[in-house]
Amino acid sequence: MEPQQQRLFAPLVLLLATIFFAGAPAVIGHGEAASGLHPVVLLPGYTCIQASDAGRGWFRLWENYTALQADPGLLPCYQDQLRLVYDRAGGDYRNAHGVETRVVSFGTARSFRFDDPAQKNACMERLVEALEGVGYREGASLFGAPYDFRYAPAAPGVTARAFSDFSTSLTRLVERASERNGNRPVILVTHSFGGFYAMEFLNKRPLPWRRRHVKHLVMLCHGVGGSALIMQVLASTMGSPSPAPTLRDTVLSFGNRSFGSMFSLLPSPKVYGDTPLVITRAKNYSAENMPEFLAAVGFSDDEVARYRTRALPLTLNFRAPLVPMTSINGVGVPTVDKVVYWDANFTEMPRVVNGDGDGIVNLETVLALQRLVGDVPDQPYFKSILIPNTTHNSMISDDSALRVVVKEILEVNQATSS
Ligand SMILES: *[C@@H]1O[C@H](CO)[C@@H](O)[C@H](O)[C@H]1NC(C)=O
Ligand SMILES: *[C@@H]1O[C@H](CO)[C@@H](O)[C@H](O)[C@H]1NC(C)=O
Ligand SMILES: *[C@@H]1O[C@H](CO)[C@@H](O)[C@H](O)[C@H]1NC(C)=O
Ligand SMILES: *[C@@H]1O[C@H](CO)[C@@H](O)[C@H](O)[C@H]1NC(C)=O
Ligand SMILES: *[C@@H]1O[C@H](CO)[C@@H](O)[C@H](O)[C@H]1NC(C)=O
């Protein structure tokens, strides 16, 4: 592959959160017995879900690292099976014709263990180990809620069947986890895109249900209002699918731009207003003229219409979860703030203007979360913790960050009323 191509795909690699630090496995100390703990339900980040396909009997579709390492020739086939199509008649996304998928092991954190070593640091596997170190037990007090990251929640009144089904399953999981643990309400712990899912899930449940079943939401590495990084990623996947630096990225190649979740984390006008985010000589693009940007990077009118009707209203309607909440984020790492394509050639490597954040999540979106949740009178409790020099993935893989996260979860357990 030519260096230019590798550079073009750099932002894609970032989004897929393949940044990780090698390090010793976490040893977090040993704690109390499981009895007395509030059950924890984990929602991992983007791409941290294993999905299987029914084609030739159920087999591992995402992520089948072993098969792809052994035979890169399988790539086009995997890419094609992961692709979503938009069904106009049904008004919703679905699998390509003839493909049937399901997430692996809903209810458990078992499916967070990948055969790809890079995913150990990106997909909560070390957090699971750390929680087990303080007495949590898989299947007894520790549960997982994997979701198919290709789909996203949509605006009220718009069909989003995959997300509705996920919500139904998560509702049952939360209720059962609570019942099995002396009716203690659960602590939802999310990383990255899992936070977006959890917020939308909570906002769609009746308030009395939330207050009865959810002790606390602990959200790691997620703000509100999306990121200019996503604009850069959408620009970098313009044109025909090109090879990316890793097999994983090539397979995704951002879903050949077909995923329903693609527009979910675009910058929101509610947070960014008309601040220029993508800068060219002749014209700037902000959250407020996003449809023009999407058209400029090659999306069809139909696709832009889906951004307007499915994704945009959600970001405009952001609401506090009204359950006690702790938000933990990394800062001190250069994070995309603005992207400059001076000649408006979006297939060129842009100049990036960095701000503060965790390398993926910009600090501005964390400050927006503090305003939009912390200042709401009905929000029972809100705490925001910023950990210096902590990247998006080291939050759930570095010993020192994990210690902070586990300490907060134990403190939430102690809180009599929050
Ligand atoms: C991975 O894919 C290969 C080839 O498609 C298949 O034979 C294998 O069973 C898959 N692995 C899992 C764990 O399903
Ligand atoms: C990408 O999408 C286009 C248009 O939908 C389709 O023609 C092409 O085959 C897809 N490529 C892959 C690798 O899925
Ligand atoms: C675009 O934004 C930059 C930075 O805010 C500003 O200096 C420039 O004048 C703007 N350009 C146009 C064409 O509006
Ligand atoms: C845009 O940039 C790409 C990559 O540098 C280059 O191959 C292409 O010719 C450029 N297009 C125009 C219209 O300048
Ligand atoms: C930030 O973290 C890196 C990697 O863990 C470490 O090498 C570096 O010394 C840290 N810098 C500061 C200022 O703490």
Task: Describe the fold and architecture.
There is one protein chain. By secondary structure, this protein is α/β, with parallel strands linked by helices. The chain has a single domain, classed as Alpha/Beta hydrolase fold, catalytic domain (Rossmann fold, 3-Layer(aba) Sandwich). Helix content is 35%, strand content 16%. The strands form 4 sheets. The chain has a 6-stranded parallel β-sheet with strand order 7-1-8-9-12-15, with helices on both faces. It has a 4-stranded mixed β-sheet with strand order 11-10-13-14. Strand 2 and strand 3 form a beta hairpin. The longest helix is centred in the middle third of the chain and has 19 residues. The structure holds 2-acetamido-2-deoxy-beta-D-glucopyranose (5 copies). One 2-acetamido-2-deoxy-beta-D-glucopyranose binds next to loops. This is AB hydrolase-1 domain-containing protein. Keywords: Signal. InterPro entries: AB_hydrolase_fold, LACT/PDAT_acylTrfase. It comes from Setaria italica. It holds the Pfam family LCAT.
